Amino acid sequence: MYAKLSSRIVRFDLFTLYLRQPELLFFASMDLEKTKEQLINVEKEIASCQLCPLYKTRRNIVPGEGNPHAEIMFIGEAPGAREDESGRPFCGPAGKFLDQLLDSIGLQRADVYIANTLKCRPPANRDPLPEEKSACRKYLEEQIAIINPKIVVTLGRHSTETYLPDLGGITKLRAKLYHRANGIFFFPLYHPAAALHNGAMRQTLLDDFAKLPDAIVQVKAQLAKQKKENAK
Ligand code: URA
Questions:
Q1: Domains and CATH numbers, the chain
Q2: Residues framing ligand 1 (Cβ under 6 A)
């Protein structure tokens, strides 16, 4: 089962590598260091960003955090008050539920990467504006390109609209796999905040989350098939 195999994806990969080809371990660790450095460079860009007015009102940037070589990357909406205070994504009640959802499939935060559509808090937690989303998109694109996840899970309407704008609403799209022309696989889900005061939605999210391991298996099979075809 995926969940059991990957409770620490990077460490597991490095350990497997150590057993099979210990001489390559050094290069794998170097690769991880390089990826971390690239992500830090994106953070530096975000820290000096003035592409929209949100830099004037935020306390801290919230670039994202997690495993630089994550197979799964989550994209939420925007930082709220707690995230703005701490500089960390999903550290309030929605984040607590996200932790439970991860746990339900045997994962922890350290296994995945978590970012947001916006890197700065919109005042009074209002919805992100279209111009803010398009200004901030370049940082998300850079993070996706660096991390190169197997699957991007969009949480809620805003991040789903950003990447799957032409297919319909989140209710129609949720818990299904989409392969876009840019080569990325997307798996939209409801936002965990939507379930905080709604028991039925909570169960729906748990049920949808349970489909994620199988979606990863599907992605890996499709990538392996593509690789085989490209090698012909
Ligand atoms: N909601 C989000 O979309 N992102 C956060 O970081 C916190 C709450």
A1: 2-231 (3.40.470.10)
A2: 76-80, 83, 89-90, 94, 116, 193
